[in-house]
Amino acid sequence: MQYKNNGSFALMNLDDDERLKNVLWPYQRSRAANQYFGDVITFDTIYLTNRYGMSFAPFVGVNHHGQSILLGAGLISSEDTETFTLFFQTWLQCMDGKPPKAIIIDQDGAMKNAIANVFPESRHRFCLWHILKKVLKKLGSYAAYKSGLKSHLMKCVYDTQTIEEFEKCWDGLINTYDLHENVWTNLKEFVDQFDSALRKKIENENNEDFHTFSVTIPCISRSPIEKRFQELYTNAKFREVQQQVIGVLDMDPHLLSEDGIMKTYLVEDEVRVEEFAKLVTYSVNFNVEDCDRKCSCGLFKMRGILCRHILAIFKANGIKLLPDRYILYRWRKDIKRRYTLIHNRYDAGN
């Protein structure tokens, strides 16, 4: 890989018997992309284990189209704190010493310790997908799972809007139910498969780039706020914005209180989780002077997209111009990102 691309980097270390112990290879493109999308990453080692007992360990971010993007990967022979610490330190060195603002992992104790050592300022969270995936495996065989436990658990996860609400619901779950744990490939085959997957990732991103600049998605309203997002966001992200714009039609904000420049609204909304639908009331705090806002649904914090509840409050207050802080840099299509200019052997014609 280094012979084909001088910008590539690889680190390999051996055990006492001169056998391959760990290997890390962030591509030049991945290293450059980290400057734009390395603020929030996931790190996981459960995807594949080859016949040598080495786990695949990718660093993954999210690009401007909402696609996953590889920010480095490797194979590790053991999942202990020492190995993870070395792995994270090497990756951090490759990324010019720029740590992520947040890192999401599964519930691995050794990984948690290594993150505290190498990324002490990063916000560390467990992955909800991993947690819920284990629920069925751990609890699915119990009669109570289908007769109420699952619904109670989903209520704790999806129906609570604050830490206090969640803790109260969780305690109720624990008390009510008295709740006081592959395909083999060789190394060459694996690297070939990894190479193929990376090629597909780059092709998908290139296709989305082309689509974003060649196709304009029409606005569904006369709102200048929607028009602003249309001008600046990639098509994939603009579609997400439009889903919220459509939702404004069903919103009827109720002014709960007003204290100087601060207003608090209640907004009732229908929420769907799997096959269920129900009405949920959200609260929105709105600063009339500088248009600062906070909605209890947390969509902007979680997905970087303004929710329909906030858009409805903007509409109710006659807000036509969107403050720049609501236009996220990472979703913009008018930014020429340096990593996309880096030549790679997947380019057309090679």
Automatic annotation (TrEMBL):
Matches recorded under Pfam families: MULE, SWIM
SMART domains xrefs: ZnF_PMZ
PROSITE patterns, per the entry: ZF_SWIM (PS50966)
Single GO cellular component term: nucleus
Keywords, in A-Z order: Metal-binding, Nucleus, Zinc, Zinc-finger
Record's keyword annotation contains Zinc: yes
Compartmental location: Nucleus
Annotated InterPro entries: FHY3/FAR1, MULE_transposase_dom, Znf_PMZ, Znf_SWIM
Gene Ontology biological-process annotations: regulation of DNA-templated transcription
GO molecular function, one term: zinc ion binding
Residue span(s) of domain SWIM-type: 282-318
Family listed: Belongs to the FHY3/FAR1 family.
Job of this protein: Putative transcription activator involved in regulating light control of development.
Protein known as: Protein FAR1-RELATED SEQUENCE
Species per Swiss-Prot/TrEMBL record: Juglans regia
